[in-house]
Structure prediction request, 329 residues.
Amino acid sequence: MESLEKVKQFSKSITTIKDELKKDVVGQEDIVDNVIIAIIAGGNVLLEGVPGVGKTRLVRSLGRVLSLPFSRIQFTPDLMPSDVTGTNVIEKDEKGKMNTVFQRGPIFANLVLADEINRATPKTQSAMLEVMQEHKVTVAKQTYKIEEPFFVLATQNPIEQDGTYPLPEAQMDRFMFKLVVKFPTVKELAGIVNMTQITLDETANAVIDGKTILEMRELAKTVPVIDDVLTYAVNLVSNTHPELPDCPPTAKKYIKYGASPRAAQALITAAKVRALMCGNYNVSYEDIQTLAYPVLRHRVKINYNAVNDKLTVDDVIAMLIDDTPKAKA
Prediction:
């Protein structure tokens, strides 16, 4: 009975968050849902979309709604790792003595927007992605922990590739989701124009705090996953590997590289949060299938056959879902 109440409260909190975000963000319901799932699950998100579709506004508004400090880093080719993590500086105290003090970088925030992450050099990218993975910064043998909850939303422009440094597959794997922000519909575009004519500032109110998010994360960890659903999720990830002897024809024909074990971990962790969002206290096949797209689209590398047949990564994932049988009741 207590678990049922917690599930209801969880679902209610998510609805409240989404209602507040609607004051600042028009449309993009799937993007909002998946970003909230990633924050609660403790993952990071890679957002791909053309400029001006509201990526920065979404993160700023999330910071307000969740009562979390927000930081924005604009990635450029001349950005150094110390510009992200921080560095030691020499300061003079009241007595005139020189001391080394650590000056924290913009990464020390609960919500971090890494804008156009593919514009920075590999050295700066790796420093950023190390913090995402470890949730700590090490400078001159001294380690500084990042306060939880910690969430990075990185953006990249799919159109302009001049002067960019594409993220290697191993670093892309550190993102729980890759979300593609589509251009708004005519109705949504009209809503955006009307909203911004009134004010360019965010108007959403704080409805939750970091402590509550961590409590929601702990509750999500307790959501049960029956063996059949777990096996389905694992088989789906395994079916992305064309080198395995029992892989489906889709993988052999269209996939060059498959997803890592992190994909299976992300799929289950995120599915637990989505189950609670939908008011359920168990993970379903639908949760796995819905989240397969954001979890796998940056981890699966399609080959020339797929490109030649005019198939996208999402098309191949849909075929893999069809190829992966559910357990018989």
